[in-house]
Amino acid sequence: MTEDNINISDSYSQKEASLTDRIAEFAARIHTYQLPNSVINKVKLHLLDALGCGVSGASMAISDSARNVSNIIGEGGECSVFGTELLYSPVAAAFANSNITNALDFDDGTELNGKGLGHPGATLVPVALSGVTRFKVSGKQLIHALAAGYEVNNRLIIALQPSPARFEEVYGVSQHQSVAAAIVYGSLAKLTTQQMHNAIGLAATLTCVPSLHKYNWNERPIVSFKDFVAPAAMSGVLAVELTLANFVGSHNVLDGDKGYWRMLGSDQFDANYLVSELGENWAIHLGSFKQYPACRWLSPALEAHELILKNKNIGINDISKVEVQTFSKVVEDLNEVSPVNEIDAQFSLPFLMAAQAYGIQPGPEWFSQSTLNNDEIKQFAKKVYLQVDPDMDSAMRGIQRRPSASVIIHLHNGTQLKEHVSEPAGGSIRPLIDEAVILKAKKNFSLGGVEADNVINYINNLYDHCEMVESLKLMGR
Fold first, then answer.
1. What is the pTM of this model?
2. Cβ within 8 Å of residue 414, ≥6 positions away
3. Which strands form 405-411's sheet, in the order they lie side by side?
4. Could you give the CA distance from residue 375 to residue 318 in angstroms, rounded to a whole number?
5. For residue 210, cis peptide bond before it (omega within 30 degrees of 0)
6. Cβ atoms of residues 253 and 269 within 8 Å
7. Class of the domain covering 296-421
8. What is the DSSP string of 53-114?
9. In what order do the strands lie in the sheet with 115-116?
10. Domain chopping of the chain, boundaries
11. Are 470 and 142 in contact (CB under 8 A)?
C-alpha cells in the first residue's frame, strides 16, 4: 500500500458500538465466558513460560537495576518481585517483574506466519502478578484475565501492522502491549465495560513512542528497554489505577482515522480483524515460544549452527570459519563481535554462536561477565562471517517479515557442513509441543534454584482453584 487507509467494515455504523466499546465489553465480561480447553491450556503454557523466564532472569544485571528503580518508585506495597523479599506497589512491581521476565530475551511472542510481533508474556504476566495481590482473585479469574489480555494483544498488533514501506520508517516492538496490560489488570479489578473503555483510553495515551529504529543498532550498547515491555506494563497498571481514581481517558481511542493505529505510526488498520469472531475464534493460539535467549531474528542462525555442532561430532579446534547467510538486518545491525553487556550480547550473533560452540548452557551463563570477557569466545566470534542472502533478505523485507538463515561451518581439512533454517521454531509454522515448553520452563526454574514441579502443579490446578491465588506460589516460593 502506498496511501494511508483504514479498513472498517460497513457493518460498523455510528448507531452500533464502537471498536473500543466492543473490546472493552469483551474484556469486562471475560469472566462469563466458557473458555475452550485449548485456550485454558495455552494460557497456562504462556504463564509457565513467563514465570520460568522471570525466575532465571532474576540474577541478571538489568534485573538488579530494575529492582533498584522500583525501590525508589514504589517500595513498601504488597506485591512481590523476582529476586528479592522486598514488597512494592503494583506499578513498581509490574515494572521490575516485566524487566526481569524479559531480561534474558527468552520470553514468549506473537507470530503470524513466521512474522514476530512483540513479547506479550513479559508484560501481561508481571501485570497479573501485581493484580492477583492487589485484588485477591481466584485461579479461574486469573486465567480468564490473561486469556482476554493475550487475545486483544494478538488481534491488536496484527490489525495495526504497517506496510513494508512504513515499517522501514517507524515501528515499535511491544508498545501496544500497554492496552493488553490494562485489560489484564482491569479484568482482575472487575472493571465495568465503561471503566474498561476508559482504562484502554488511558493506556493507549500512556504508550511509549514506537522506537525500533532507534535502538542504538550501530552505536552500541543496545538500549536497556530493548522491547519496551516494562513501560507497557507500567502503563497498563497505571491506567486502571487512574480509572479507579476517576481520571478520564480518551474515548473510542481504537477507532477512526486518528485512532491508536495512527498514534503508533502505522499507515493501515484492519478494524474487522480486531473484533471479528471475538471470543469465538481465538487469536491467543498465535502465541509463540522461544528456543534461545536472544533476539528472535537470530534464532534461525543459532538453530542451524546448533544442528551442525550436535550432529556432526566436530571439535571446536576443527573449525576454521563459520559463514552465515541471512538477511541484511542481521548483517548490518547484529554483527557485533565484542558486546559490552548482557543486553548487547542478546543482539550479537557472532558472540552467541561462540557461546554455543563452547558448550555454554543457554541462559544467564551466556551473558555472565566471565563469558563476556572470555578471550577464547571473543576469538571464535571473529571467525563468524555474515553475508546477505538476497532471497532471505526479500522474505524479511516483504509483507511476511520472516527471518531465516543458512550456516556453513568450514573445517581446517576443507570440509564444509551446512544447515538451513527457513523460520524460527516455536510459532504456528513450526510449533513446539507442550512438553518442550514445559521442559524449557523446568530448566529456567532450575537455573533460578526453584523446584519447578511445585509451580507446574499449582498452575495445572489453577483453573479449578477457587481460593485466592498466591503470587509467591506462582513465583516458586
1. 0.95
2. none
3. 384-388, 319-326, 405-411, 416-421
4. 18
5. no
6. no
7. alpha beta
8. HHHHHTTSHHHHHHHHHHHHHHEEEEEEETTEEEEE-HHHHHHHHHHHHHTTS---EEEETT
9. 115-116, 109-112, 287-288
10. 5-290+433-474, 296-421
11. no
What are the grid coordinates assigned to 284, written together?
491467543
Strands 5-7 and 268-270: parallel
How far, in Å, CA of 376 to CA of 223, rounded? 27
Residue 46 to residue 196: CA distance in whole angstroms: 24
Query: 5-290+433-474 maps to which CATH number?
Result: 1.10.4100.10
Other Cβ atoms within 10 Å of 458 Cβ, number: 18
Q: What is the pLDDT tens value at each position of the chain, 477 positions in all?
A: 334 544 433 333 444 789 999 999 999 999 999 999 999 999 999 999 999 999 999 999 999 999 999 999 999 999 999 999 999 999 999 999 999 999 999 999 999 999 999 999 999 999 999 999 999 999 999 999 999 999 999 999 999 999 999 999 999 999 999 999 999 999 999 999 999 999 999 999 999 999 999 999 999 999 999 899 999 999 999 999 999 999 999 999 999 999 999 999 999 999 999 999 999 999 999 999 999 999 999 999 999 999 999 988 898 999 999 999 999 999 999 999 999 999 999 999 999 999 999 999 999 999 999 999 999 999 999 999 999 999 999 999 888 899 999 999 999 999 999 999 999 999 989 999 999 999 999 999 999 999 999 999 999 999 987 789 999 999 999
Q: How many residues does the chain have?
A: 477
